[in-house]
Amino acid sequence: MDDRVTQVLELYHERLQTEQEERRAGIHRPNSERFLAVGRRTGQLISILARVLDKPTILELGTSYGYSTIWLAEAARTSGGRLVTMELEAHKIAYARDMAERAGLADHVDFRHGDALDLIAQMDHGIDFVLMDVWKDLYVPCLEAVLPKLNPGAIIVADNMRVPGGEEARKYQQAVRAIPHMLSVPLPVGTGLEVSRYLPA
Length: 201
Known about the structure:
The longest helix is centred in the first third of the chain and has 22 residues, at 3-24. Helix 1 runs antiparallel to helix 3 (67-79), helix 2 (40-51) runs parallel beside helix 3 (67-79) and helix 5 packs parallel to helix 6. This protein has a seven-stranded mixed sheet with strand order 3-2-1-4-5-7-6, sandwiched between helices. It is globular and about 50 Å long. The protein has helices spanning 3-24, 40-51, 67-79, 90-102, 116-122, 139-146, 166-177; strands at residues 57-61, 82-87, 109-113, 127-132, 150-158, 182-187, 193-198. Helix 3 (67-79) links the parallel strand 1 (57-61) and strand 2 (82-87). The relative contact order is 0.14. By secondary structure, the protein is of the alpha/beta class.
């Protein structure tokens, strides 16, 4: 990881630290202004998983302000792949794009603005890695939409399985574990992950 990427990640870490301090002080930003990022350990893990794939097509569902985008774009550059990231809010895409440019990773990222289900439907087959980090009621519909487009061996990582968790997280875990040829395990990393690999016969 080069200095430009490291410097951008540190900017994110400073912002995340500020938000944590604000919450402890009783200051609550609206969700549209919060980073809602996956966190450092989850960022490291998704980067490790994406890097082991050969020239992967990586799909990020929920760009937000682009923290996980940096980790995945760096993995795409290292592995010779590309990242497609999807976000509903245009101002978040603009912020994420600027940070990717600062990190020297913008050429490896395809930013797409709109509804995740509509955008998934427009994608070609051949997805190798998926980060699921949208609103929880979209997890199962997004899983169903992306499943026919997965390459054998594709990895899916779903965030926020423990925090906030809840009924929608349980529905997602049940759905992904019920798919034939899908191996899936929960991991106590960050706010909780469900990591799955699609291995059709």
